[in-house]
Amino acid sequence: MAGMSNDGFRLRQWEESDAPVLLAAYAGAGMETERPAGVETLAGAERLIAGWADDAAADRAHTFAVVDGREILGQMRVMTEMRAHSIGWVSYWTLEKHRGRGVGSTGLKLLAKHCFDELGLFRLETGHRLNNPASCGVATSAGFLPEGIERQKLLYDGVRYDTETHARLATDPDPA
């Protein structure tokens, strides 16, 4: 994974020393629905990173920092709970100050290549709220085709949101 890069961006495992960046990222604009429970302190961020390492060792999920040199720009994650069908569920985010630089789409292309080539997955799925066009742009730029709307799928602060599902297959052409 360390050698996989594109446009200067690469994916790497999260490290315990990254906890301050992770904690700050979850406090950023647009991240209120992304922060997992229990990640309000540095110790909580460290526990989350340790949990991600456990998830990877057990092949439940693989979570990577998107970096440019040593600087963390965002995150890519694939959950592999549907291994019997070779399906992974993908989620991603970019730190507020790095949005608009192609971090998400490049990171997602790198993650898809890793999932297909190294993890042996065939189908990757992702989704976004309809009121999040930036996330839609990341998915489509990384070769994920829209597959449909899921009505009122997500619940945040008492409000239900429709989502659009996207997928990419190992047999799909690589995006430009």
Automatic annotation (TrEMBL):
Protein name (record): N-acetyltransferase domain-containing protein
Domain of life per record: Bacteria
Entry-linked InterPro entries: Acyl_CoA_acyltransferase (IPR016181), GNAT_dom (IPR000182), Ribosomal_N-acetyltransferase (IPR051908)
All residue ranges annotated as the N-acetyltransferase domain in the record: 9-162
PROSITE patterns cross-referenced by the UniProt entry: GNAT (PS51186)
